[in-house]
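STRUCTURE:
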């Protein structure tokens, strides 16, 4: 039997995904060893392989077919813009992509101002400002702690993920506009979807059943 390979975004999503998979009988004993340095894990009996990757690389592995199925945030899917099927919203890891800044920056979002926008998500930021708001802006790509940018004067606003809003609050910033809601998604390689349709469809159906029960 051919293996079905899963690429999981490292961190919180991976842990939650494996807990969920366990509920539908998709398990991987090897993965539970906290001291392992292994990168890929196999369940020979069930014909599954799992690997953990940097979130932004998950869509790449799935597009090229190195993984059949990926679990990754909608933010990464939008930013990477890969050719793949997004088949299911797992409903966890819920947060929002927002334009944030100090209250004083609100008036700069009227569509006419040439402002600087800092973000870890330059494509999402560009798409939002150019295609939705029709506002010409300068996008500045950062790699983390994006909230710093408006505080130290690198940019007027940021486009970033807001979960609890604590980071914004503690830094005197606020949500100015919402770009889109986010959550963890299941993505599938386009060829795998045809070649392994039965097995992949079964996995999605099982996940749906479990999550519908949990949601009541
Ligand atoms: C994310 C995001 C915000 C923060 C939002 O950052 O970029 O900074 O979490 O969460 P909150 O609304 O609950 O405060 P992350 O922790 O991934 O770190 P990074 O920005 O340095 O990459």
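SEQUENCE:
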């Amino acid at each position: 039997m051919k293996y079905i390979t899963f690429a999981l975004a490292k961190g919180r999503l991976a842990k939650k995904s494996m807990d969920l998979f366990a509920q539908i009988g998709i398990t991987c004993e090897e993965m539970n060893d906290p001291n392992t340095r292994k990168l890929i894990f196999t369940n020979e009996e069930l014909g599954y392989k799992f690997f953990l990757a940097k979130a932004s690389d998950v869509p790449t592995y799935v597009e090229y077919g190195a993984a059949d199925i990926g679990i990754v945030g909608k933010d990464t899917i939008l930013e990477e813009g890969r050719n793949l099927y997004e088949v299911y919203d797992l409903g966890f890891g819920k947060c929002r992509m927002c334009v944030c800044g100090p209250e004083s920056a609100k008036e700069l979002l009227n569509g006419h101002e040439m402002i600087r926008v800092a973000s870890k998500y330059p494509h999402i930021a560009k798409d939002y400002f150019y295609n939705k708001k029709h506002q010409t802006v300068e996008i500045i790509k950062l790699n983390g702690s994006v909230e710093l940018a408006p505080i130290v004067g690198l940019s007027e606003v940021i486009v970033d993920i807001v979960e609890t809003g604590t980071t914004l609050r503690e830094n005197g910033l606020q949500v100015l506009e919402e770009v889109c809601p986010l959550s963890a998604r299941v993505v599938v390689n386009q060829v795998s979807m045809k070649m392994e349709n039965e097995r992949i469809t079964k996995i999605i159906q099982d996940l749906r059943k479990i999550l519908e029960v949990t949601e009541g």
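REMARK: The chain is about 35% helix and 30% strand.
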